[in-house]
Amino acid sequence: MAKNRYTIFHNPRCGKSREALGLLLKKGGDIKVIEYLKNPPSLEELEELSHLLDLEAMEMLRLKDPKYKALFGADVPDHYTALERLAAHPELLQRPIVIKGSAAVIARPAERIERLED
Fold first, then answer.
1. Out of 4, 14, 31, 34, which one is annotated catalytic?
2. What is the chain's percent helix, strand, coil content, to nearest 5?
3. Which of 38, 45, 33, 34 is nearest to 86 (CA)?
4. Which residue, of 7, 67, 71, 75, is most buried by count of CB atoms within 10 Å of its CB?
5. Crossing angle of helices 79-88/43-53, nearest 10°?
6. 59-90 residue pLDDT tens
7. Of the candidates 32, 17, 21, 24, which has an alpha carbon nearest to the alpha carbon of residue 91?
């Protein structure tokens, strides 16, 4: 069994996401990379991410992203609406998200991964 088992919701075009993946690679262990723009999470998976992060779904949205503002203006959605928006527009998901066991962090900065240590 691997010493460390991580899952990262990764966008290879994002510098912060590449930095987090690089840190995970240095740590070693088993790393599952999910390119969430190619394989968007379902509503159920997003709900589980919300639970693992211990965040409301709207906190997982990139509310300051110009695309969010173009699509939704200044609207701050309720939990379920935020999940629906994330499912429809995965590019609005905060990134990178790293999971280890039953905990997760938005790894910005990448050092937040250390919070997942045993």
1. 14
2. 45, 20, 35
3. 45
4. 7
5. 120
6. 999 988 999 999 999 888 999 999 999 999 99
7. 17
User: Could you check whether the bond before residue 109 is cis, i.e. omega within 30 degrees of 0?
Assistant: yes
What is the pTM (predicted TM-score) of this model? 0.91
User: Do residues 45 and 18 both lie within one domain?
Assistant: no
Look up the domain containing 25 and give its range: 1-36+95-118
Q: Are residues 61 and 50 in the same domain?
A: yes
